[in-house]
Amino acid sequence: MRFVLEAEQQDMADTLRSLLTTADVPAIARSWVDGDGEEWRKLWQSLGDLGVTGLTLPEERGGLGLGTVELTVCLQEFGYAGLPGPVVESLALLPALLPDLTADTVVRTAVVEPHVPCALDADLADEVYACGPGASRRLTGLSLQRTDSFDPARRLFEVAAAGGEDVPGADFERGFDLAVLGCAAYLLGLGHRMLDLATEHVTHRQQFGRPVGEFQAVKHHLANALLKLEFARPLIRGAALAADTAHAGRDASAAKLAAGEAAHLTARTALQVHGAIGYTAEHDLHRFLTKTAALRQSWGTPAWHRRRIAAALSTDPETPIGSP
């Protein structure tokens, strides 16, 4: 099975990276932390103009009609840029849950019990949903209470609602699995960005008259991080290809677990080679460190995903990850 991106998929990734670089995402993230969503919404509109906000929706509903692989490609680029906002909810979870959704630039977020108990950026979102295996609802008459978050750009809110509208025909399991997979892709992007920052840093920082990156111990740490990230990549691709099979949940969990652990190792390595400067909130690395720590525990903890994989393998130990 080949996991290399096709030319069109790679072009899409390159276009997104160029757009996000030009948009100055670090400045957008700083504004987002303070509750100022103006520049973020301009970028979201630009993504809508490219069709990204309707990526997986069918063409008859104004979407691009692309698949899960393209979804993971986009979310990986968002992770590489450290783009804040409810992108997993808007692009992965809710398009699968809302059968009549048409392509637009509406910002949507959700509470997903028990794994996402607080709605991300609910005060800046246009629509807030409560999703679960039993039913999914669009909430109305909202009362929001801000709660603490390890990542300042992940603005979490406890949501109380006076009313709501049921979403008929919602496929919660598929939506949740796509969100888990989207989170894995985002984490992979975070990991690669932190590795690039660390590599750039050790190339320029000198000790004993030599770049730090020339020391064998530093090379080994960075190589181990790259190895972890590269082993996570085919699990994400395989899970994307298996998204419509009976093993979608197991494969999404395997991808999330591998990507989360790879990004976590890369974060620790990047922080170690940066030294004390990496702890400072002013340094660009800090954005990616805090986001990695938060997302590793979101959309299911590592322990929960391990149990889910073990339960699936106990009933079917023969089917490999990512197999149709």
UniProtKB/TrEMBL annotation:
Cofactor(s) needed by this chain: FAD
UniProt family annotation: Belongs to the acyl-CoA dehydrogenase family.
Entries under SUPFAM superfamilies matching the protein: Acyl-CoA dehydrogenase C-terminal domain-like, Acyl-CoA dehydrogenase NM domain-like
Gene Ontology molecular function terms on file: acyl-CoA dehydrogenase activity; flavin adenine dinucleotide binding
Pfam families attached to this UniProt entry: Acyl-CoA_dh_1, Acyl-CoA_dh_N
Alphabetical list of InterPro entries matching this protein: AcylCo_DH-like_C (IPR036250), AcylCo_DH/oxidase_C (IPR009075), AcylCoA_DH/ox_N (IPR013786), AcylCoA_DH/ox_N_sf (IPR037069), AcylCoA_DH/oxidase_NM_dom_sf (IPR009100)
Regions that span the bilayer: none
Domain Acyl-CoA dehydrogenase/oxidase N-terminal: residue ranges: 7-84
Superkingdom of this protein's organism: Bacteria
Domain Acyl-CoA dehydrogenase/oxidase C-terminal, chain residue ranges per copy: 177-313
Keywords: FAD, Flavoprotein, Oxidoreductase
Protein name in UniProt: Acyl-CoA dehydrogenase
Record lineage: Bacteria, Bacillati, Actinomycetota, Actinomycetes, Pseudonocardiales
